[in-house]
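Long-time lurker, first post. I've been practising inverse folding by hand and with some scripts of my own, and I keep getting stuck on stretches where the structure tokens seem ambiguous. Below is the full token string for one chain I'm working on. Before anyone asks, I'm not after the true native sequence, just a reasonable design that respects the backbone. If someone could post their per-position residues I'd love to compare against what I wrote down in my notebook.
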């Protein structure tokens, strides 16, 4: 039973890994509007966050902010400004990817 759960989680992680890394590249190497939109949507005080982490919002650091916001999404989703179901689903699936990857590492 545990083997089935672990193998299912591994398959999900393998498939979703490509989606995550694509978006990591878009947020990290793409236009700054993407990470600014994400910060505006999820940060408590977006302008203060941008001032404090202005270097992290450029280049590869933006991918780190993207990953950080994914990991804390269940705790900050109540303050999201974008109420679209697609955004909520995208963030939950990314969070589930991290949970599955961590559980595979621990139990696999």
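-- Answer (accepted) --
I ran through it position by position. Result:
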């Amino acid at each position: 039973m545990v083997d089935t759960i672990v193998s299912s989680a591994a398959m999900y992680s393998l498939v979703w890994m490509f989606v995550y890394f694509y978006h990591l590249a878009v947020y990290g190497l793409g236009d700054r509007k993407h990470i600014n939109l994400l910060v505006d949507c999820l940060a408590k005080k977006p302008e203060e966050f941008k001032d404090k982490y202005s270097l992290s919002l450029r280049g590869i650091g933006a991918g780190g902010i993207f990953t950080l916001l994914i990991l804390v999404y269940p705790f900050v989703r109540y303050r999201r400004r974008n109420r679209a179901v697609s955004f909520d689903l995208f963030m939950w699936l990314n969070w589930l990817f991290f949970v599955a990857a961590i559980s595979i590492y621990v139990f696999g």
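A couple of notes from the structure itself: Helices lie at 2-29, 32-42, 46-52, 60-71, 73-76, 85-107. The two ends are 13 Å apart (CA to CA). Happy to go over any region you disagree with.
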